[in-house]
């Protein structure tokens, strides 16, 4: 007998959430032209094409005679070059460094194109440190109209009777409203309904879509939450043609309004979801028609998901290295896969699956793109950045690593380190592809 929890929500969408074409555009008219031009035309903030560099050694020549990267290095000791074919120009004497060497500086340059992303004065600062619980873990959705950042926690012990079905765990959604980069208020989101172990999230219309991992009793799926109080939630999807999802992890919205998300079995491994009834897929859900279909399979643990700026490429991270029981095996994937998006019959298909990058430290979790097509991923040592060709161009070292992150305005990023919330300021032209602000 079919269980009522797995009933598919009506596709008529009485609340109007799924009607029309999805567009995320929060910038004012004075900024929109700049945003569009940064996506479609070359400018000084766009990274240069990769070039093989030969070792450089500082000489007694004047500052203006030195290559730009060397002049910058001598002025800013927060940076560290780790390219095998170049020397650490900030040291007293030239020393060739290996990427495996201990590096005290937060910004590591593997290729000169990373300098354009960093801008003249990049910074890394800790905004919040809270030893009570890992409040800063996933989602990372910045809502520009209210200057609010939404973050989901890692699992927190919960002794309340309602938490029995989640293995005595809960997840808290935190919202941080910014008045300036360092002046903000922090509050817990109190939804009228439970969030059912929310994890990844993304912007959608006047709110955000969250991955609800579910519990032993409640179904998993996708929920829409309004950005403003009282943060009303609406279930968008909670089954695949009558079969329950595993525990949806991360989500992204295509410009056509369709919702793409990953569905690993972490919830089952961590004891708050039933035995899986589906493989670990990537799905596409059309809110307008109610169509839900599998677009990719064959993963160990599909996790982060993001489109390139032109939406011709989809990136999916595989965190099979770490299972839900905390076991690790280094012969398992810690990989970002790239897919080409091919349209036929008015529907998109994923083709040309290929390895885009393999993380050298930990596993790549959350993944995002900037407006130039560079790919950012939260890894075991912080944020790793690759260009569109899969070349590692730089790293932002963060103590304890970083599961996920999101872009704000004009080169601002927030990075989530479990008990700590970090703020990164890059160059003004380094903007997230999702919002483009």
Tell me what the structure shows.
There is one protein chain. This protein is mainly β and 437 residues long. The chain contains four helices and 28 strands. The protein has helices spanning 29-40, 68-75, 113-118, 266-269; strands at 79-81, 107-109, 123-129, 138-143, 148-152, 156-157, 169-170, 173-180, 183-188, 198-204, 207-212, 221-226, 233-237, 251-253, 259-262, 282-285, 292-296, 302-307, 313-318, 335-344, 347-358, 367-369, 375-379, 382-386, 392-397, 404-407, 412-416, 420-425. A six-stranded mixed β-sheet has the order 1-2-25-24-23-22. A four-stranded antiparallel β-sheet has the order 3-28-27-26, with no helix packed on it. β11 and β12 (221-226) form a beta hairpin. The radius of gyration is 22 Å and the shape is globular. The termini are far apart.
Q: Whole-Å distance between the termini?
A: 50 Å
The shape is globular
Tell me the fraction of residues in β-strands, as a range. Answer: 25-35%
Q: Look at the helices and sheets and give the structural class.
A: mainly beta
Largest sheet: 6 strands, mixed
Could you give the count of β-strands? 28
Number of helices: 4
Q: Summarize the amount of helix as a percent range.
A: under 10%
Gyration radius from CA atoms, angstroms: 22 Å
Strands ordered across the widest β-sheet? 1-2-25-24-23-22
Mean pLDDT: 82
Low-confidence stretches: 1-16, 19-77, 84-98
């Amino acid at each position: 007998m079919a269980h009522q929890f797995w009933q598919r929500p009506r596709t008529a969408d009485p609340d109007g959430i799924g009607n029309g074409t999805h567009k995320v555009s929060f910038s004012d008219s004075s900024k929109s032209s700049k945003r569009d031009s940064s996506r479609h035309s070359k400018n000084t903030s766009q990274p240069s094409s990769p070039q093989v560099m030969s070792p450089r050694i500082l000489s007694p020549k004047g500052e203006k005679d030195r290559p730009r990267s060397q002049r910058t290095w001598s002025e800013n000791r927060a940076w560290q070059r780790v390219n095998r074919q170049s020397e650490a120009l900030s040291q007293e004497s030239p020393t060739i460094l290996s990427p495996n060497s201990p590096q005290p500086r937060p910004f590591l340059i593997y290729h000169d194109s990373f300098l354009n992303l960093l801008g003249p004065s990049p910074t890394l600062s800790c905004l919040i440190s809270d030893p009570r619980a890992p409040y800063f873990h996933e989602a990372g959705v910045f809502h520009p109209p209210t200057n609010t950042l939404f973050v989901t926690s890692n699992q927190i012990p919960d002794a309340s009777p309602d938490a029995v079905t989640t293995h005595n765990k809960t997840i808290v959604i935190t919202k941080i409203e910014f008045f300036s980069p360092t002046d903000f208020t922090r509050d817990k989101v109190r939804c009228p309904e439970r969030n059912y172990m929310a994890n990844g999230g993304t912007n959608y219309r006047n709110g955000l879509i969250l991955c609800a991992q579910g519990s032993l009793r409640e179904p998993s799926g996708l929920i829409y939450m309004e950005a403003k109080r009282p943060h009303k939630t609406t279930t968008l999807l909670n089954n695949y043609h009558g079969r329950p999802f595993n525990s949806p992890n991360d989500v992204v919205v295509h410009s056509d309004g369709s919702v793409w998300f990953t569905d690993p079995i972490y919830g089952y491994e961590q004891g708050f979801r039933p035995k899986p009834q589906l493989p670990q897929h990537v799905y596409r859900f059309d809110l307008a028609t109610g169509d839900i279909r599998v677009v990719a399979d064959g993963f160990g643990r599909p996790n982060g998901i993001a489109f390139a700026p032109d939406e011709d490429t989809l990136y999916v991270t595989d965190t099979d290295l770490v299972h839900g029981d905390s076991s690790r095996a280094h012969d398992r994937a810690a990989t970002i896969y790239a897919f080409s998006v091919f349209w036929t019959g008015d529907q998109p298909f994923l083709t040309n699956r290929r390895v885009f990058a393999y993380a050298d430290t930990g596993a790549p979790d959350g993944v995002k793109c900037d407006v130039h097509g560079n790919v950012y991923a939260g890894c075991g040592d912080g944020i790793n950045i690759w260009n569109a060709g899969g070349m590692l161009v730089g790293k932002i070292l963060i103590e304890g690593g970083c599961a996920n992150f999101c872009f704000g305005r004009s080169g601002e990023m927030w990075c989530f380190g479990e008990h700590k919330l970090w703020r990164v300021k890059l160059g003004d032209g380094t903007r997230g592809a999702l919002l483009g602000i």
